[in-house]
Amino acid sequence: MHVADRSNLFDRLMEEAQSLAPADTREQIVTAIFQTSAALCRETVTNAPKAAKDRTLQIDRIVTSRRWGFVIMLAMLAAVLYMTIAGANVLSESLAHLFGWVEQYLTLLFQAVHAPHWLYGLLVLGLYRGTAWVVSVMLPPMAIFFPVFALLENYGYLPRVAFNLDRLFKKAGAHGKQALTMAMGFGCNAAAVISTRIIESPRERTLAILTNSFVPCNGRWPTLILLSSLFMAAGYTGSWNTLVTAAVVVAMVLFGIIVTLTVSWVLSKTALRGIPTHYTLELPPYRRPKIAETVIRATLDKTWYVLKRAVTVAAPAGVITWVLGNVPIGDTTALSAFASWLDPFAKTIGLDGYILMAFLLGLPANEIVLPVLLMGYLSAGALTEIDSLHSLKHIFLAHGWTWLTALNMMLFSLLHYPCGTTLVNIYKETKSAKWTFVAFALPTAIAVAVTFTTAQLARWLGLV
Q1: 413 Cβ partners below 8 Å, 6+ apart?
Q2: How far is it, in rounded angstroms, from Cα 269 to Cα 288?
């Protein structure tokens, strides 16, 4: 029997069982099984010391309660982002100065050897500058975010997050394990698609795959943090700037979760109708993490992997972007012509042609969207040197950016189609060109609809 036929048969049987039994019958069965298992464990298993067990229960009464569970979860996310942003701003500024200083000497070297202008542009303005900005913008936040996130995971808090989100996903017609795959998406959507294998139901697994890209992955965190800091928190200084930036990014994450739940609910009532299955999540005890080992492993493994992937993709993208920016078409360049062609549509959704072009060229990896945008602006004759984040904002302002442009780029970055690696994994996991296309088209349509609504509403209210 085909996989889709088995899925449909399973859903029909579940619907018939639901019609013959009370709504809470399945939960009663699961509760009875769990109580029986617990009784057997009490007779045969030696538990942890009573004091440690009681301490875990006392903490769980607070962090998994209906009243405080979500408050603590949001506060924890805000704290992680605050630490990430506070440290990343300083490190990014320092790295930008360092790479700007190195670029000056590279320029002198090329002048000294009388290198042709095209070679200087290709290697320095294209390859070096694009790679340098990937490193300076992406490395600092990832070097802080991943170790802190790993510490929370080792301490045992992340399973409590999944427990809190379980009832929301159940109400949305999805599986509670989708909370775990969504949490993995904060690191990498491509890996999160593979992690959906933990969901047994084909219908619910497809739901998790189609909605996984609505949470920001490692390639989108720097864009959200940078634009929030430069535009949304522009009127604040010092720690207030960091606090407002963290609050805006948390709001973006919350919006992504709301979109995930909403789309899951709509799909579960239409194209992926069915009854959500249940599962029992046993919460592990809290444990003291090995801080040094966890930080070093997360920094070397995850941060280095992300940075290597970004540089590998950004280097050729920088070369291609520079070439397009210097290939003449009439009295303009290929890059400017492409951006001008996209500009009318981009303006209707609060962006511009260069931003939309950067998202299209950034399909292989979200990490290169911002560097490609910068190289597009620079090749069009904007500022030629970037030695700080403030210089970066001047480039944006020189191309007509407002707070609405920054907001809509953040929204589009949050909601748009998955990166190329994620799409490949989706096809491998679903074995379906149809669902892979839906995974591309659905978030793109939502991103366009949301940014269009935001832009039109802001203009109608006279806010821009």
Answers
A1: 216, 220, 223, 224, 359, 366, 369
A2: 43
Q: Which amino acid type is present at position 364?
A: P
Alpha-carbon 335 to chain mean position: 27
Share of the chain above pLDDT 70, in %: 83
Q: What SS3 state is found at 329? A: strand
Residues 6+ apart with CB under 8 A from 441: 417
Distance CA(263)–CA(415), nearest Å, equals 12
Q: What is the three-class DSSP state of 327?
A: coil
pLDDT, tens only, 52-97: 556 777 888 888 888 888 888 888 888 887 887 777 777 777 887 8
Please state the length of the chain.
464
CA 126 to centroid of chain Cα atoms? 26
pLDDT per residue over 258-306, tens digit each? 999 999 999 988 888 877 676 666 677 777 777 777 777 766 666 676 6
Q: Kindly state the tokens that stand for 213.
A: 């890209």
Q: Which residue has the tokens 């694009």?
A: 130
Would you give the DSSP letter of residue 362? T
pLDDT digits (tens, 9 = 90+) for 397-455: 888 899 999 999 999 999 999 988 889 889 988 888 999 999 999 999 999 999 999 99
The contacts of residue 34 (CB under 8 Å, 6+ apart) are 280
Contact yes or no for 372/317 (Cβ under 8 A) = yes
Tokens of 214: 């609505």
Which tokens hold the place of 109? 């070297």
Write out pLDDT tens, residues 2-24.
544 555 655 665 566 555 555 45
Return d(Cα 220, Cα 368) in angstroms, integer.
10
User: How distant, in Å, are the alpha carbons of 291, 359, 375 from that of 356?
Assistant: 42, 5, 14
User: If DSSP codes are grouped into helix, strand and coil, which group holds residue 424?
Assistant: helix
State whether residue 120 is helix, strand or coil: helix
Residue 245, judged by CB atoms within 10 A of its CB (0-12, 13-18, 19+), counts as buried
Question: Angle 304-326/129-155 helices, nearest 10 degrees?
Answer: 150
Mapped onto helix, strand or coil, the DSSP state of residue 432 is coil
The runs of H, that is alpha helices, within 270-364 are: 291-298, 304-326, 334-348, 353-361
**Token pair in block for residue 180:** 């775990």
pTM score of the predicted model: 0.77
- The DSSP letter of residue 122 is I
